Amino acid sequence: MMSKGIASDRDVETIELIRKAGYREATIVTARKRGGTAWMRIQRIVQEHDDMVGLAERHSRQKAIKDPVHGAIILAPWELDIISTWEMQRLRYVRQLGPAHLVYPGATHTRFEHCLGTNFLAQKCIRVISYCDDLCDRSFRPLSELLDEEHERVFRAVALLHDVGHPPASHTIEPALKSWAGFDHLDLGEHLILHSHLSDVLRDVGVNPKTVMQVLRRQSRDRILRLISEFIDSPLDIDKTDYLIRDAHFSGAELGLFPAERVLLTSRVVQDETGDYVRAFMLKALHSLEALVLSRNWMFSDLYLHHAVRVAEAMINKATYLQLEAEGFSHNECVGMFTRMGDADLHRWLSKSENDVVREYARRIRHRQLFKVVLSRRLSSFADDVRAKFVEMQYDMSALLGLEREIAEDSDRVVLDVVVPNLGANQMAQIRIITESNGPQRLITMAEAEEARPLMSALEQQSLTIPSVRVYAEPRLAPDVQKKFARLFPTES
Fold first, then answer.
1. Is residue 450 a contact partner of residue 145, using CB atoms and an 8 Å limit?
2. What is the pLDDT of residues 465-493, one digit of tens each?
């Protein structure tokens, strides 16, 4: 299911009141209409919020922030103004890996740290990556000569803001939000970048909020901005580079480590046959690229898709959807509340639910009394039509809940999980390689490079073996669940 984005009929003013005051939309609308003490109370809360935000002073000098992964990250005054906003500071309370700390106790790092790390890599790209307008001319020049001051500022701002819209628990509850309201973290980020106090700060520091979104959405006609989009969102982007290193560092999953420095140093910016600037890699970088790609896929199997991590995520996601359904959250409330909450706020919201199942799931997460994996099947083992049905269910919580009722009488004790990670095999095949195998340097795709065939084969194999369907439940339900599931969805192999 593709994101529908934030509805065009959203009420920006009401969303901001929800974000600042934390009240339901009906309460705000009624109080605003009637006035009186209820409206005065809301206004007082909003004023207190605005007063606190107003305490922030414009920065006048650069500062260094000590990062456990990259060392000192130097931020310019205008970047410090951006990260000082409430919208960015909220990310301090959103864990990068959601509930993964239940399995890897050290994995408590946050989206805030990751955004700083991505900005560090953006700065490093500007310094160490070279470009060349003509491959026949081996005189590569610094990328900083290609980017003007405005482009550099946009690059660094986008790196800081690419995850600003992440809801609490990060990606964990996105299926619930997509299914209920039709949007994801990028849609929430778009609202903040264009319609919150953050938007005002961006304009004050000389960054156009619309330009930031054009880069994040890959919608710019400017060929330099399109190049920046490639650095931010591609199979080998700086976002993935930072989170792989950071997640490996804090979780202790050493398989996630790879020579990130060499990946940067062996990449170039060149013009393709259409005249667009594209990121390409020297042929000698293949071993480093293999380490990056394989590290990412190992991290999927050992960390991101670890059975206990996925159980916790699936339980939180289901509880969130059930609570959205129980409370009947409006579109405005979804945008306002989930750009207000941190992880602790989400847990409190679920813990106070009037729905017994939601409260139980919240308690189970708090006490780490998770359901167990009672069934796991590779998607490749099903017929094509069944496999397509499961893939469509990823972001259709209503269909998932319906199927849970079919495979278990006590469906409150069962959670169905469709695991289809984006391993990027198709996108990886299109990565550009600079080769000299037949005379002058030329551009070829990764798929065309003979030296890359082992890597592409490994990716294709993982694309077959990793996607799966899992059922989590109380162990006593396992025999009945397995029997009913097998009857409904027989496998071919």
1. no
2. 888 999 999 999 999 999 999 999 998 76
